[in-house]
Amino acid sequence: MAETANCIYCGRTFDPSKGEGDHVIPAAWGEFRNDIRFRGLCQECNRRIGKAEQHMLQCGPERIFREMVVPASSRSRGKRASWVGADGLPPPQSVAHAEEGVLKVRFLDNPGKVSAPDQFVIYDEAGVAYPIELFPGISPNALRNKRKRIQVKVIKEARLHCDESRWDDYMKTIKKVWKWPENKQVELPRTEPGMRTILIDTMSRFKILYFQAIAKIAFHYYLATSGRFKGYEPCFSEIRDFIMNGTAQGKDKIFIRRPTSQKYIDLRWFHVLAAKERNGVATGHVCLFRGPQYRGSEYVVILGKFSDIIMPLIQWAHSYEYDDPVPSKGKVGIVRPVQVTRMSVY
Question: Which of 8, 194, 199, 252 is the most exposed place for a label (fewest CB within 10 A)?
Protein backbone atom coordinates (compact mmCIF):
# COMPACT_ATOMS: atom_id res chain seq x y z
CA MET A 1 0.00 0.00 0.00
CA ALA A 2 1.39 3.42 -1.01
CA GLU A 3 2.39 5.83 1.72
CA THR A 4 0.23 8.94 1.92
CA ALA A 5 0.48 12.34 3.61
CA ASN A 6 -1.55 15.53 3.80
CA CYS A 7 -0.20 18.75 2.30
CA ILE A 8 0.41 21.33 5.04
CA TYR A 9 -0.95 24.13 2.80
CA CYS A 10 -4.05 22.75 1.09
CA GLY A 11 -4.73 19.55 3.04
CA ARG A 12 -4.76 17.34 -0.06
CA THR A 13 -3.66 13.73 0.30
CA PHE A 14 -0.58 12.88 -1.78
CA ASP A 15 2.15 10.26 -2.06
CA PRO A 16 5.37 11.79 -0.65
CA SER A 17 7.49 9.06 -2.27
CA LYS A 18 6.73 10.52 -5.71
CA GLY A 19 9.13 13.35 -6.35
CA GLU A 20 12.21 14.49 -4.48
CA GLY A 21 10.50 16.92 -2.12
CA ASP A 22 11.13 20.63 -1.81
CA HIS A 23 14.74 21.83 -1.98
CA VAL A 24 15.07 24.08 1.07
CA ILE A 25 17.83 26.00 -0.76
CA PRO A 26 16.81 26.55 -4.42
CA ALA A 27 18.34 23.97 -6.76
CA ALA A 28 19.26 26.82 -9.11
CA TRP A 29 22.03 27.72 -6.64
CA GLY A 30 23.48 24.22 -7.02
CA GLU A 31 22.74 20.96 -5.25
CA PHE A 32 24.66 19.98 -2.12
CA ARG A 33 25.80 16.73 -0.60
CA ASN A 34 23.75 15.84 2.52
CA ASP A 35 20.99 18.12 1.24
CA ILE A 36 17.92 18.70 3.42
CA ARG A 37 14.53 18.18 1.78
CA PHE A 38 11.01 18.97 2.99
CA ARG A 39 8.34 16.49 1.92
CA GLY A 40 5.18 17.90 3.45
CA LEU A 41 3.58 19.60 0.44
CA CYS A 42 1.86 18.41 -2.70
CA GLN A 43 3.15 19.11 -6.21
CA GLU A 44 0.48 21.73 -6.93
CA CYS A 45 1.38 23.81 -3.86
CA ASN A 46 5.06 23.29 -4.61
CA ARG A 47 4.52 24.80 -8.08
CA ARG A 48 2.61 27.72 -6.58
CA ILE A 49 5.38 28.42 -4.09
CA GLY A 50 7.84 28.05 -6.96
CA LYS A 51 6.54 31.31 -8.47
CA ALA A 52 7.79 33.22 -5.42
CA GLU A 53 11.09 31.38 -5.56
CA GLN A 54 11.49 32.21 -9.24
CA HIS A 55 10.89 35.88 -8.46
CA MET A 56 13.68 35.78 -5.87
CA LEU A 57 16.00 34.01 -8.33
CA GLN A 58 15.45 36.64 -11.03
CA CYS A 59 14.96 39.90 -9.09
CA GLY A 60 16.71 39.51 -5.72
CA PRO A 61 20.32 40.53 -5.06
CA GLU A 62 21.17 36.82 -4.83
CA ARG A 63 20.84 36.71 -8.63
CA ILE A 64 24.14 38.56 -8.95
CA PHE A 65 26.01 36.38 -6.46
CA ARG A 66 24.71 33.24 -8.11
CA GLU A 67 26.49 34.44 -11.25
CA MET A 68 29.68 34.95 -9.26
CA VAL A 69 29.70 31.68 -7.35
CA VAL A 70 27.93 28.88 -9.21
CA PRO A 71 29.39 27.62 -12.53
CA ALA A 72 26.95 27.86 -15.45
CA SER A 73 26.73 24.10 -16.03
CA SER A 74 25.79 23.53 -12.37
CA ARG A 75 22.98 26.06 -12.28
CA SER A 76 19.41 24.90 -12.20
CA ARG A 77 20.43 21.30 -12.84
CA GLY A 78 22.53 22.19 -15.84
CA LYS A 79 20.32 24.93 -17.29
CA ARG A 80 21.44 28.54 -17.21
CA ALA A 81 18.68 31.06 -16.59
CA SER A 82 18.52 34.10 -18.85
CA TRP A 83 19.55 37.48 -17.39
CA VAL A 84 16.04 38.91 -17.06
CA GLY A 85 13.82 40.18 -14.29
CA ALA A 86 10.37 38.90 -13.37
CA ASP A 87 6.81 40.11 -12.72
CA GLY A 88 7.40 43.42 -14.51
CA LEU A 89 10.60 44.25 -12.60
CA PRO A 90 14.16 44.40 -13.95
CA PRO A 91 16.99 42.09 -12.89
CA PRO A 92 19.33 43.34 -10.17
CA GLN A 93 22.36 45.39 -11.13
CA SER A 94 25.87 45.69 -9.74
CA VAL A 95 27.09 49.26 -9.47
CA ALA A 96 30.52 50.70 -8.68
CA HIS A 97 31.20 53.88 -6.76
CA ALA A 98 34.04 55.32 -8.83
CA GLU A 99 35.64 58.73 -9.27
CA GLU A 100 33.47 59.27 -12.36
CA GLY A 101 30.30 58.61 -10.37
CA VAL A 102 28.07 55.56 -10.15
CA LEU A 103 28.67 52.96 -12.86
CA LYS A 104 26.90 49.73 -13.74
CA VAL A 105 29.42 46.89 -13.82
CA ARG A 106 29.55 43.24 -14.86
CA PHE A 107 31.41 40.52 -13.02
CA LEU A 108 34.07 38.71 -15.01
CA ASP A 109 35.05 35.04 -14.67
CA ASN A 110 37.14 36.05 -11.67
CA PRO A 111 34.57 37.05 -8.99
CA GLY A 112 36.89 39.77 -7.72
CA LYS A 113 37.04 41.63 -11.07
CA VAL A 114 34.44 43.66 -12.95
CA SER A 115 34.19 45.67 -16.15
CA ALA A 116 31.94 48.63 -17.01
CA PRO A 117 29.86 48.59 -20.23
CA ASP A 118 28.99 51.75 -22.15
CA GLN A 119 26.24 53.56 -20.26
CA PHE A 120 24.26 56.74 -19.76
CA VAL A 121 23.73 57.41 -16.04
CA ILE A 122 20.83 59.60 -14.92
CA TYR A 123 20.67 61.14 -11.43
CA ASP A 124 17.31 62.18 -9.96
CA GLU A 125 16.66 65.08 -7.57
CA ALA A 126 17.80 63.01 -4.58
CA GLY A 127 21.05 62.08 -6.29
CA VAL A 128 20.02 58.45 -6.89
CA ALA A 129 21.74 57.02 -9.98
CA TYR A 130 19.97 55.09 -12.74
CA PRO A 131 22.46 53.53 -15.21
CA ILE A 132 21.14 52.86 -18.73
CA GLU A 133 23.34 50.39 -20.61
CA LEU A 134 24.22 51.32 -24.20
CA PHE A 135 25.61 49.40 -27.14
CA PRO A 136 26.94 50.48 -30.56
CA GLY A 137 24.10 51.18 -32.98
CA ILE A 138 21.39 51.49 -30.31
CA SER A 139 18.30 53.10 -31.85
CA PRO A 140 16.37 56.07 -30.42
CA ASN A 141 13.33 53.79 -29.89
CA ALA A 142 15.39 51.28 -27.94
CA LEU A 143 16.77 54.09 -25.79
CA ARG A 144 13.27 55.52 -25.24
CA ASN A 145 12.10 52.12 -23.98
CA LYS A 146 15.00 52.00 -21.54
CA ARG A 147 14.13 55.54 -20.43
CA LYS A 148 10.53 54.55 -19.67
CA ARG A 149 11.64 51.76 -17.33
CA ILE A 150 13.52 54.03 -14.93
CA GLN A 151 10.57 56.43 -14.40
CA VAL A 152 12.60 59.48 -13.34
CA LYS A 153 10.53 62.67 -13.72
CA VAL A 154 13.11 65.29 -12.79
CA ILE A 155 16.74 64.80 -13.87
CA LYS A 156 19.35 66.56 -11.78
CA GLU A 157 22.36 65.37 -13.79
CA ALA A 158 23.30 62.86 -16.49
CA ARG A 159 26.64 61.39 -17.51
CA LEU A 160 27.74 59.45 -20.57
CA HIS A 161 30.49 56.89 -19.99
CA CYS A 162 31.98 55.25 -23.08
CA ASP A 163 35.05 54.94 -25.26
CA GLU A 164 35.96 58.16 -27.08
CA SER A 165 35.40 56.49 -30.47
CA ARG A 166 31.68 55.95 -29.71
CA TRP A 167 30.97 59.29 -28.03
CA ASP A 168 29.60 61.19 -31.02
CA ASP A 169 27.27 58.37 -32.13
CA TYR A 170 25.84 57.97 -28.64
CA MET A 171 25.33 61.73 -28.23
CA LYS A 172 23.39 61.93 -31.51
CA THR A 173 21.03 59.20 -30.29
CA ILE A 174 20.71 60.64 -26.79
CA LYS A 175 19.78 64.09 -28.16
CA LYS A 176 16.90 62.50 -30.10
CA VAL A 177 15.46 61.19 -26.82
CA TRP A 178 16.37 64.01 -24.42
CA LYS A 179 16.63 67.72 -25.17
CA TRP A 180 19.86 68.99 -23.64
CA PRO A 181 20.71 72.70 -23.87
CA GLU A 182 24.18 73.12 -25.35
CA ASN A 183 25.26 75.42 -22.51
CA LYS A 184 24.48 72.69 -19.98
CA GLN A 185 26.87 70.15 -21.50
CA VAL A 186 30.30 69.73 -19.93
CA GLU A 187 33.07 67.35 -20.97
CA LEU A 188 34.51 65.69 -17.88
CA PRO A 189 38.15 64.63 -17.47
CA ARG A 190 39.01 61.42 -19.29
CA THR A 191 39.76 58.27 -17.34
CA GLU A 192 42.92 56.42 -18.20
CA PRO A 193 42.42 52.69 -18.95
CA GLY A 194 43.70 50.21 -16.37
CA MET A 195 42.86 48.31 -13.16
CA ARG A 196 41.82 49.94 -9.89
CA THR A 197 40.07 49.08 -6.63
CA ILE A 198 36.44 50.18 -6.28
CA LEU A 199 33.46 49.59 -3.98
CA ILE A 200 30.62 47.48 -5.46
CA ASP A 201 26.95 47.68 -4.45
CA THR A 202 23.85 45.86 -5.70
CA MET A 203 20.66 47.58 -6.86
CA SER A 204 17.53 45.43 -6.91
CA ARG A 205 13.76 45.88 -6.94
CA PHE A 206 11.41 43.09 -5.92
CA LYS A 207 7.86 42.46 -4.80
CA ILE A 208 6.42 40.74 -1.72
CA LEU A 209 7.07 37.47 -3.56
CA TYR A 210 10.73 37.79 -2.60
CA PHE A 211 9.87 37.71 1.12
CA GLN A 212 7.46 34.80 0.56
CA ALA A 213 10.40 32.81 -0.82
CA ILE A 214 12.60 33.73 2.16
CA ALA A 215 9.81 32.71 4.56
CA LYS A 216 9.45 29.40 2.72
CA ILE A 217 13.16 28.64 3.14
CA ALA A 218 13.01 29.38 6.88
CA PHE A 219 9.78 27.42 7.49
CA HIS A 220 10.65 24.32 5.48
CA TYR A 221 14.15 24.20 6.99
CA TYR A 222 12.69 24.30 10.50
CA LEU A 223 10.13 21.58 9.81
CA ALA A 224 12.59 19.30 7.99
CA THR A 225 15.38 19.72 10.56
CA SER A 226 13.56 19.76 13.88
CA GLY A 227 11.05 17.01 13.13
CA ARG A 228 8.93 18.34 15.98
CA PHE A 229 5.89 19.39 13.92
CA LYS A 230 4.26 18.56 10.60
CA GLY A 231 3.56 22.17 9.66
CA TYR A 232 -0.24 22.12 9.45
CA GLU A 233 -0.71 22.89 13.18
CA PRO A 234 -2.77 26.03 14.02
CA CYS A 235 0.28 27.80 15.48
CA PHE A 236 1.75 28.00 11.94
CA SER A 237 -1.35 29.49 10.29
CA GLU A 238 0.19 32.96 9.78
CA ILE A 239 3.43 31.74 8.21
CA ARG A 240 1.53 29.34 5.92
CA ASP A 241 -0.83 32.10 4.81
CA PHE A 242 2.05 34.48 4.11
CA ILE A 243 3.98 31.92 2.05
CA MET A 244 0.94 31.24 -0.13
CA ASN A 245 -0.75 34.68 -0.20
CA GLY A 246 1.90 37.17 0.93
CA THR A 247 0.77 40.67 1.96
CA ALA A 248 2.64 43.66 3.34
CA GLN A 249 0.70 43.31 6.60
CA GLY A 250 1.69 39.66 6.83
CA LYS A 251 5.33 40.55 6.22
CA ASP A 252 5.29 43.04 9.08
CA LYS A 253 3.96 40.34 11.41
CA ILE A 254 6.50 37.61 10.68
CA PHE A 255 9.71 39.42 9.65
CA ILE A 256 11.67 41.02 12.46
CA ARG A 257 14.72 43.25 12.33
CA ARG A 258 17.43 42.39 9.84
CA PRO A 259 20.55 41.68 11.93
CA THR A 260 23.86 43.41 11.34
CA SER A 261 26.45 41.21 9.63
CA GLN A 262 29.73 40.57 11.35
CA LYS A 263 32.60 42.55 9.90
CA TYR A 264 34.97 39.85 8.83
CA ILE A 265 35.86 38.35 5.47
CA ASP A 266 34.95 34.73 4.77
CA LEU A 267 37.31 32.73 2.58
CA ARG A 268 34.59 30.55 1.02
CA TRP A 269 31.02 31.05 -0.14
CA PHE A 270 28.15 29.54 1.83
CA HIS A 271 24.55 29.90 3.02
CA VAL A 272 23.51 29.56 6.67
CA LEU A 273 20.07 28.37 7.80
CA ALA A 274 19.13 28.21 11.46
CA ALA A 275 16.05 27.92 13.66
CA LYS A 276 15.35 28.09 17.35
CA GLU A 277 12.56 27.76 19.89
CA ARG A 278 12.71 30.02 22.91
CA ASN A 279 10.06 31.38 25.27
CA GLY A 280 7.28 29.74 23.28
CA VAL A 281 8.30 31.26 19.92
CA ALA A 282 9.95 29.52 16.94
CA THR A 283 12.07 31.69 14.63
CA GLY A 284 14.06 30.95 11.50
CA HIS A 285 17.28 32.64 10.38
CA VAL A 286 18.27 32.85 6.69
CA CYS A 287 21.65 34.15 5.51
CA LEU A 288 22.31 33.75 1.78
CA PHE A 289 25.56 33.99 -0.20
CA ARG A 290 28.02 34.94 2.47
CA GLY A 291 31.55 34.98 1.13
CA PRO A 292 34.76 36.82 0.21
CA GLN A 293 32.98 39.73 -1.51
CA TYR A 294 29.66 39.82 0.35
CA ARG A 295 28.44 39.51 3.93
CA GLY A 296 25.16 37.90 2.94
CA SER A 297 21.48 38.88 2.96
CA GLU A 298 20.17 38.11 6.46
CA TYR A 299 16.57 37.70 7.62
CA VAL A 300 14.85 36.53 10.81
CA VAL A 301 11.32 35.12 10.46
CA ILE A 302 8.74 34.35 13.16
CA LEU A 303 7.49 30.84 12.34
CA GLY A 304 5.00 30.16 15.14
CA LYS A 305 4.04 30.79 18.75
CA PHE A 306 3.35 27.91 21.11
CA SER A 307 2.26 27.23 24.67
CA ASP A 308 4.64 27.28 27.62
CA ILE A 309 5.29 23.53 27.34
CA ILE A 310 8.00 24.28 24.77
CA MET A 311 11.47 23.97 26.28
CA PRO A 312 13.27 27.28 27.03
CA LEU A 313 15.82 27.00 24.18
CA ILE A 314 16.25 24.50 21.36
CA GLN A 315 18.19 25.43 18.21
CA TRP A 316 19.44 24.03 14.93
CA ALA A 317 21.80 25.39 12.27
CA HIS A 318 23.40 24.19 9.02
CA SER A 319 25.80 25.74 6.55
CA TYR A 320 25.58 25.07 2.82
CA GLU A 321 29.26 25.33 1.94
CA TYR A 322 30.45 25.64 -1.66
CA ASP A 323 33.52 23.65 -2.63
CA ASP A 324 36.63 25.62 -3.53
CA PRO A 325 36.74 25.68 -6.49
CA VAL A 326 33.06 25.07 -7.20
CA PRO A 327 32.83 22.13 -9.65
CA SER A 328 31.05 22.64 -12.96
CA LYS A 329 29.37 19.20 -12.75
CA GLY A 330 27.55 17.36 -9.99
CA LYS A 331 27.19 18.57 -6.42
CA VAL A 332 28.56 22.06 -5.74
CA GLY A 333 29.27 21.63 -2.03
CA ILE A 334 28.21 20.05 1.25
CA VAL A 335 25.68 20.70 4.03
CA ARG A 336 27.20 20.64 7.51
CA PRO A 337 25.69 21.12 10.99
CA VAL A 338 26.85 24.33 12.65
CA GLN A 339 27.63 24.92 16.30
CA VAL A 340 25.10 27.61 17.21
CA THR A 341 26.21 30.62 19.23
CA ARG A 342 24.50 33.94 19.76
CA MET A 343 27.36 35.75 18.06
CA SER A 344 27.63 33.61 14.94
CA VAL A 345 23.99 33.03 14.04
CA TYR A 346 21.64 35.50 15.79
Answer: 194
